[in-house]
Amino acid sequence: MDNSKARMVVVFIMMVCASVIACISVIPGVALAGGLTYEGSTTIGENIMPEAAKAFESKTKIKFAAIGGLGSGKGFKAAMEGTADIGGISRALTHDEKKQKPYYQTIGYDAIAIFVNGKNPVNSLSKDQIKGIFTGKITNWKEVGGADAKIVVVTEVKTGERATIKAFKEMALDDAEFGPSKEIDKPHECVQSVSSDEYSITNASLAFKESGVKVVTVNKIEPSAQSIRSGAYLLSRPLNLVSKELPSGDKKAFFDFILSSEGQSFVGKKFVTVR
Known about the structure:
CATH superfamily of the largest domain: Periplasmic binding protein-like II
Number of helices: 11
Oligomer: single chain
Largest sheet: 11 strands, mixed
Shape: elongated
Number of strands: 11
Helix content: 25-40%
């Protein structure tokens, strides 16, 4: 074979390879060599995805290339724009989100807990008291049965992208605006702040409970598995995974895995399973 024919063969092979790669890249649900990607809720991203992704890879040899935590709103947007394979949303989808016709699956249930310092004598708060504290109308612990001390409210950064902020505002504050608060970026850091300040309070996923804090009851109801599933606990919410379309290929494999008994065991470590 002369040089000109050899060059033609090489060019033809390169064109065929490029076409195959292009075709694979547009098949829904098929991940390329880099692996699957997750973006969205830190509640899901920090407490479920790391262990679940590791077990999933061990079982299927399908990897996760990235597990992000930019918040539920950004996770939904990333999934719908195709910049992430799977989005995580730790709340119910909004009407506008549902209008975009995503595929979504509830993988478990969470409770937004009200955390106070372990030394605080307050063990229970009513919904009205919680609303008063977080809107700034109740400013002293003695107004709710505690010490004569100023209440230090700690919250995540209050943006519309944060699922916990959005869900808490709807369920506990009746969509009223938050009052003044000490804003901290990550929910587990909010809980850590409360553990070191006797007069502080925060709201965060029950999964972020740690030593030095305690969970108060809401309307005298504890966030138990039964009360969360039934909705009797006021601040209950679903944990959803989202895909732009009906998942197939590697994405479908992960959706199937997380709903299996093995996958649900990772959800159940800190949350309430769907079964």
